[in-house]
Amino acid sequence: MVIELTQDNFKKEVLESDVPVLVDFWARWCMPCLRTAPILEELALEVGDRAKVAKLDVDAIYQIADEYEIMSIPTLTVFVNGEIKEQVIGVKSKQEMIRLLGL
Amino acid sequence: MKDVLIVGLGPAGISAAIYLKRSGVDPLLIGKDLGNLELFPLPIENYYGFPEPIHSKTLVQNGIAQAQHLGIEIKKEAVIEIAEKDSIFYVKTAQNEYLAKTVILASGKKLKSFSVPGFNKFKGKGISFCATCDGFFYRRKKIAIIGHSAYMKNELAYLSQLNQDITIFTNGETLDETFPFLIVKEKITKFLGDQKLTGIKTSDGQIYSIDGAFVAVDSPGSLEFAQQIGIIVEKGNVVVDKKYQTNIPGLFAIGDIIGGKLQIAKAVYDGMMVADDIKRYLKNKNK
Fold this sequence. Notes:
The complex is a heterodimer of chains A (about 100) and B (about 290). Chain A has one domain: Glutaredoxin (3-Layer(aba) Sandwich), CATH 3.40.30. In chain A, about 35% of the residues lie in helices and about 25% in strands. Chain A has helices at about 10-15, 30-45, 60-65, 95-100, and strands at about 5, 20-25, 50-55, 75-80, 85-90. Chain B has two domains: about 1-110 and about 220-285, FAD/NAD(P)-binding domain (3-Layer(bba) Sandwich), CATH 3.50.50.60; about 125-215, FAD/NAD(P)-binding domain (3-Layer(bba) Sandwich). Chain B is about 25% helix and about 25% strand.
């Protein structure tokens, strides 16, 4: 399942996670973002408990997007132990996302 | 509505059109120029069936003539936008809009990309390829748009709804229209900034303060354009499956843009193969 991030759950789900977290910074109006969504669903199924897959709407949760200086979407960011380990922009394949997660 | 719309008039696109036409599907071919082969400096000596070296431009022109002899419809227009809704593709050119059930991207790969110091460094940190995606982040900031063609105008039309603080950089090209924005014609020599983009320097030594630069320099041949539609691009190539289909169902890609050998023979092979895959796709879709 893809986790919907909010101002309230970001810390717990991402920064304090025991497993790597892939966060997709996205917005409704962005066509490549909409293409990323089904790939995230597949990714979440495939990685199971080994990692988390989450998405953050830059329109609604702009404070966090600003904090991480997101300036282009979709941006895929991998957090490990609360820190950014990988960051890429654009639509990526499931295999590439698994590689970014270090699995 | 067309069953198949092919973008690109090179060996891949023309071959796909010929194989489709001969198997009973009527494709529409759209392309603005002859692509890389038009300006390729050396004659072609390794393509089957030509005892004497053949000029690359002649070869592509022959291919287009061959398609025309078969009654294939060709539009010499520049594609500036491709959108998909409910399995229908809307392909916008500088002049028209066409609807199609499937699209084949055969628009080739630029031999040289836009290479200016700082360009790669600030991708995603001030330099953007998608106005509809990233315009939002620059609503109250200084925007640059780089380009001069119909593609640039299409992106500009979107950006100017969000923000009026726009500078157009034609990068040495001429504009055939006037706009109510500052227009800089000098070539861009450097993208400036530390962690993110803060300015653009031009060949006359001027420095312009810029927060966001939207790149709309070229035609749909570019990979940047594919990225904007939401096609997966990795290691500089459009990613396709064994049936030449991208991550967007009904959108196929062949030729140089998907990588592998950048050769005419391979492009022709791709064109032949994708024709079968498209026919199968259309058959399943119409069930």
